Each structure stands twice: as structure tokens, then as C-alpha cells.
Amino acid sequence: MRALHHPDVSTISLPTMLNALADEVRLMVVRQLAEAGGVVCGQFDVPVSMSTLSHHLKVLREAGLLRVTPEGSFRRHELRLPEMETRFPGVLSSILKTTP
Fold this sequence. Notes:
Layout: H1 14-21, H2 24-36, E1 39-40, H3 50-62, E2 66-71, E3 74-79, H4 81-87, H5 91-97
Antiparallel strand pairs: 1-3, 2-3
Helix pairs in contact: 2-3
């Protein structure tokens, strides 16, 4: 499995982060990650196909919201909440507090 690029926190822009969170499915994924601490790709509970989910995960990773690490033959997805809170204090935690 090749290593995936994760943007440096200092390069993440607020519009990019908010754009990634503007999709209902991506917001569902972020909420699940916040609750679980980390999720293996096939264990997300979302109403989309696996290929569509992969696209959403890529958008979130490229926006800097997710860290993806190999875990055996799977990839573990974790929310970069501490890093996002450092970059944009209170923004992501406020979004996560809103009702789904």
C-alpha cells in the first residue's frame, strides 16, 4: 500500500475545510470519526456505494481533515481534530456539536 499525502496543517485553508464539510455524506463520515476515534474504511455507516465513499474520504483527506494509516490490508481513517482545533480554534468542534 503506497503512502498517502496529508497536507501540512499550516497549508489548510478555512474555505477548503468548510467546502469539504458542506456535503451531507462527508459530514456523516466526520461525525462517525469523531465518535469512534477511528474507523476502518468498510465500517462506515453511510448511504452510498464503496466507490462513492472512497471519493468522499479522498476529499476529506485532501482537505486536511483526515489522517489515513495502513492497518494490515485495510486503511484506518482518523479525524485530525486536535490539528484542526489548533489551526481553526472552535470551528470543527462547533460543527460537530450541531444536530445531524
